[in-house]
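Severity: low
Component: inverse-folding endpoint
Summary: output formatting inconsistent between runs
Steps to reproduce: submit the following structure tokens with default settings.
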């Protein structure tokens, strides 16, 4: 079975760590990079091949929809999955 390489992008380290633990408990999944901002993501993508980008829509330096558009315009060769923490929960 092919190993699936994932990059996590979220500015909340606790959420990233939780996702990493959950995903890496699967035999065929590896977290190959983690970023808390778009600038960090760009640096990782230049050096790290990936199969899936798991992206929070709310990252500090660029909205996730803009990130997706820019990546799609550059003809990326990976899937992008998006998640969003509800506004009310984020500000409790």
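Observed output (run 2 of 3):
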């Amino acid at each position: 079975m092919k190993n699936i390489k994932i990059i996590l992008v979220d500015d909340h380290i606790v959420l990233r760590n939780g996702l990493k633990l959950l995903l890496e408990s699967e035999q065929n999944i590896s977290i190959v990079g983690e970023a808390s901002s778009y600038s960090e993501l760009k640096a990782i993508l230049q050096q790290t091949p990936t199969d899936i980008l798991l992206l929070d829509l709310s990252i500090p330096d660029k909205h996730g929809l803009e990130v997706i558009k820019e990546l799609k315009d550059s003809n990326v060769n990976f899937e992008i999955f998006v998640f969003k923490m509800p506004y009310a929960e984020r500000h409790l």
